[in-house]
Write a structure and sequence with these properties.
12 helices, TIM Barrel, single chain
Length: about 325
Amino acid sequence: MICKNIPGTDLNPSSICLGAVLIGSSIDTKNSFLMLDSFVESAGNFIDTAHIYSDWIKGKSLSEKTIGKWIKERGNRKELIIGTKGGIRDGVIRLSRDEIIRDLNESLEYLGTGYIDLYWLHRDDPNRPVADIIETLNELEGKGKIRYFGCCNWKIERIREAMVYASDNKLKCFVGNQVMWSLAVPNTNAIEDKTFVMMNKNGIGFHKKTLLAVMPYSSQAQGFFTKMHKGIPLSDHIRKLYYSKENIKRFERVKKLAHDLSRSVTEISLGYLMSQPFTTIPIIGCRTLEQLAESLKAGDLALKPDMVKYLEEGKQYLISSIYQSRSS
């Protein structure tokens, strides 16, 4: 993998971010440590977790607590870029000053660190003025508890509103946006959590104009293309969420481009996101070390713009414009 800069910051995270939703819960402590070690050994330094990860499975904040134990044991905090998310408790979105501070302080305790490199608001409360939220985050940044902050599952209109307020009041604002985004287009009526915000044409236009970085979650569509290619049966959930005529067309294009570039379907799927005209760092969620290794092979992949268009629309690309890895 290579590293890339997040605009407006001095953060230089790895081109792929390790999502930690399963760390410490579905993946036990021993195997979580192995996963984290393998990621770092492959030049990964960007880890994304959340204060509520595991609350619905085995216990409160097990992801943060497990990462904190790993960091303490390895003594590698200074080499890492840690992102975590707050603003939700027991399924309720809560973004008052006191609630944000409470979540952050608990995250700091569980992660065993004095600061969070990139603190995300996990959801938005459109009934709360952006002024209150931005003022609180600037206060926490000023105290050194967070270095930078971003938003997750915020609509473009609210992000723009926050940017205007911050600019008018000479305050700092979001340096990144987490949205649901992959090459596979989800069937929106199948998304159970209606607070998820998906990337769309309006969002892409906004990010092209502002150059606000994007960290897509569900970046591999739960392995939809890879499972199709390997003949692995799709679960009812994945089939309901991603199986469509459009995605079957995209699957055929992914296979062709993977063949022409001698890369895997997994690599092409992630390469699509990493080859956008603005900084995009996909968050991957892996259950096994094999899945992790396969995903990280995409870390240097840079597709040409005509290849990105081909994956989206089927417009033919030129073999003569074959990609070069970012490290070449």
